[in-house]
């Protein structure tokens, strides 16, 4: 695990409505495995994690063999999932990732954890292409109370919460594809093509 962080939580956000996709993104198959398992496998290649899946429908994940954590504060979007899992996590530092990122990088996760462990930040968020990616970032367990206050006050936007938290934004030369996410069917088909290119050595 990253320097200064021996063991971290891994929070996989899998509770979205998937309205634009029209199918549950956490269960989409890609290269022979559903997305939630793919994310776990790719990140588990680098580091040891206390894994949690954020969802209000645990019945969707039979045999997953990791805790499925329901929201404590309903209608709060991804922040409610982060909050509930931070309350559950045994770890001070937790990597949060959306379930629809087919090319997540364990190496980048370790880089973010190393930065988190070397400072006093509440959240560490990567920035690529002039865009922040808070749904592949590191969150400290200590920000869960601030999250609770924010959600109970009607806050919903992740970017608004980050303005209140002690957030470090990290720019860098991140590998291609790692922040590519699948919101619509065309994104899913593109991910299938990208995976085939990788498998073919492209």
UniProtKB/TrEMBL annotation:
Supply the EC number(s): 2.7.7.77
- Molecular function terms in GO for this entry? nucleotidyltransferase activity
**Superkingdom assignment:** Bacteria
**Function summary:** Transfers a GMP moiety from GTP to Mo-molybdopterin (Mo-MPT) cofactor (Moco or molybdenum cofactor) to form Mo-molybdopterin guanine dinucleotide (Mo-MGD) cofactor.
Task: Indicate the family of this protein.
Answer: Belongs to the MobA family.
Q: Which reaction does it catalyse?
A: Mo-molybdopterin + GTP + H(+) = Mo-molybdopterin guanine dinucleotide + diphosphate
Q: Where in the cell is it found?
A: Cytoplasm
Gene that produces this protein: mobA
This protein's name: Probable molybdenum cofactor guanylyltransferase
Signal peptide range: none
Binding positions for Mg(2+) per the UniProt entry: 100
Cofactor(s) of this protein:
Mg(2+)
Q: What CDD domains does the database record attribute to this sequence?
A: MobA
Record domain MobA-like NTP transferase: where: 11-160
Query: Which keywords appear in this protein's UniProt record, sorted alphabetically?
Result: Cytoplasm, GTP-binding, Magnesium, Metal-binding, Molybdenum cofactor biosynthesis, Nucleotide-binding, Nucleotidyltransferase, Transferase
Q: What is known of its domains?
A: The N-terminal domain determines nucleotide recognition and specific binding, while the C-terminal domain determines the specific binding to the target protein.
Instruction: Tell me what organism the protein belongs to.
Output: Kroppenstedtia guangzhouensis
Asked if the Swiss-Prot or TrEMBL record annotates the protein with the keyword Cell membrane, the reply is: no
According to the UniProt record, what class of enzyme is this? transferase
Tell me which residues bind GTP: 13-15, 25, 71, 100
